[in-house]
Predict the 3D structure of the following.
Amino acid sequence: MHLVTARRYPRLLAAGGLAVAVAGATVVAAPAALAAPTPVTGAVLEWTGNAELQSAPPHGGCNYFSAGTSDGTLASYATAAGNVSVVKGGGTPSFATKCDGAAAGAMGQKVVVGGGAGSVDPVTGVSTIQWTGTWSVNFYGGLLPFSITDPRLVVQPDGTGQLIATLGGYASSMDKPDVKTPLPAVAGVVVADLTGVAGANSYGFTTTPRYAGVGYDAPGGGTPQNRTAAGWGSWPRSFVDFQLQTGLSSYWYSSGGGADTKKAPSALSVRYGVSTQPPSTVGLSFKNVGKGKQAKVRYGTTVKLKVVVALPGSLAAATGKVVVKDGRKVIRKAKLKKGAASIVLPRLAPGKHKITVVFKGNGTVSKSTASKVLTVVRSR
């Protein structure tokens, strides 16, 4: 599911260790110990739904997202409503631009729900977080909108979990596609089944909901599930059952159609914590140098430095600037693009050089650094 935000994300509260990738290794500084369970506030849920929700339907247009409850019209379109917002390509869409990129399957829309509150045990991963707010998925350009309200996350000690919400929407038919019949709200619908989140820590997690190998038995007259194609599967049963009323049920399980490859859910991200900023990690590597723990290069060789800054527990790419130092001396500065930067180092004198990359943070993400020794040898 996706949302568009007309405001900045709520400031995140996260406690995290700093993970720094150096010379192929990762060093993690442990976060401060937390009592179990730890109350959290300001939790943020981010989700892009699936590839189908980033693409154009067969007749054109798009399956667009809006904040709040939508009836598929311009009058009900919003990019922010309470704790819910919708972002598109890192910015705020409009009704006129909401479908940009649909033909290429690259709409880039995302749901962002802030203000979640609950508790997390960073040792066992047991979590319960409740959000308040609604977003809508406007299928077929708004002909078949449905809404997701007040999602609740529950994670068990074994790492399994569920995202549960109240669903609403409209029923329609092929005979009268312009006639929308309001559906009663259905509470307790499982929107996503989660696995592998037992490592939920003090700043959040990112995980891909279950789909592959999940069976769904369509009721009489419904499209049967295809269980022979690679990657066959289904969204949670209660979610698909609700979509029987909207006429969209076969969009949420493998039905043998050409769009089956777009139906699996995308990864969702949950961020929370108790410190002021979520962590970042810096990875660096050299090009045109010899391999080994201490990279070597002949004097005069052009050396390129690749820097990648990641945000554990987030789907977003890091933004901001990095500074490159030779010892204590600043030798280069660069702006991150999609969380990365490629930097050509100046010519370095023969000898050993401790190259350090510093990510200064960007106001909502913590500072982090990584270092690696580069040895410059004289040419023979």
